[in-house]
Design goal:
about 475 residues, seven-stranded mixed β-sheet, six-stranded mixed β-sheet
Length: about 475
Amino acid sequence: MADDRRAELESLLERQRAAFTASRPEPLSQRKDRIRRAIALVKEHGEELARAMSADFGNRSAHQSMLTDIAATVGAGNHALKHLAQWARPEKRKVQFPLGLLGAKAEVRYEPKGVVGILSPWNFPVQLAFGPLMQVLAAGNRAMIKPSEFTERTSALMAELTAQYFAPEEVVVVTGGPEVAAAFSSLPFDHLIFTGSTATGRRVMQAAAANLVPVTLELGGKSPVVMGRSADLKRAGERIAIGKMLNAGQICLAPDYLLVPEDKADEAVAGVTGAAAAMYPRLLDNEDYASIVSDRHFERLKGLIADARDKGAEVIEVNPAGEDFANANQRKLPLTVLRGVNDDMAVMQEEIFGPVLPVMTYQAVDEAIDYINAHDRPLGLYYFGEDKAEQERVLSRTISGGVTTNDVIFHVSMEDLPFGGVGPSGMGSYHAIEGFREFSHARAVYHQPKIDVAKLGGLKPPYGKATAAAAARMMK
């Protein structure tokens, strides 16, 4: 990357940090004003942004984009506006006896960190850039956003619109390819949030570590679905199909593979494939069904299917209209169910991120639990069934970023729940008060009373009986 582009990024960061420092302390009204402008940007240009997203994907439903990217982002902003005053209130903390009686006080103030970098992905390009921005602004920070080059039109439009609604020392969007992203992740931000693959997340964290920049990593992984024996398999199948085919499966929380009772596997698969065929009777000319974002991702998904087939998996393509996808040149991929998979297949070794659904079987639910625990901790985990004891067993014996029961993905849409991963699926979280605190510094403040506390506590030399008494008192 040219030195002048790196210098431009460094100059933007310095400009934002200088403005942040000069404006301290800012009233909450200023934070609210910025959130309202971010909401207005998204609302007033929602249809324009939806068109850009569709053009970038090749086809993406405008209705879906308005729901998942536009309305969801506005919801995040409104939630932050509603709760900001409560989140930002200092917390009183206790002081050791007898200091409280003598007038000592303690509190935690949640203060802005400064300039936060946001590295956002292509799959929900508006929501995953401006969604976290709402909480970054709520915490009182400035922000620099680097969106994905895969959604080039959307990224360019976001940069253009952001310049209309914000001064560059408040919020700025910078565009460019992998070289710009690498330089961006190496800047000395006060915090950096990245959403994307685990492999890229490792590189981002390594770059941030050089400057000791704290990171929030929203990654992914293979989110399992455990279907219990008590599950309504037809209803479960429809909900899984909706979640797997939304955005053509290009969702970090999409159900990645099914774990089903061995004697119910046929019924479980029929529930998914029947629902998919009913919702999408045609695919090629169906505007509700998204295209795969790029040729590279399309070929990768076809490669996963071919590898599984070559290694003995049964391939079930849900193509109710018998369409010819090979010659369509639309990057549309029908839901493809894989039965008889094993860990030797590439599809069980990496996050799928597309409409490909492996199915594994178990005899006792503990087998499913053991399989999940033997692999990387996932971003999401899903359980279907009415057996509350079994549900609790699955939840209490596994670890995942989040959980939805009797559906998939929905926990991420609850603004009052934290969203984040654990281990290889990420670290840190945003949404809710946890997100506000993620982008804030918890500053401890202690107010000493006028009395000579050092003497009272035995801290003032010469040490002796008072020191011993103080130590004994503290150890009671």
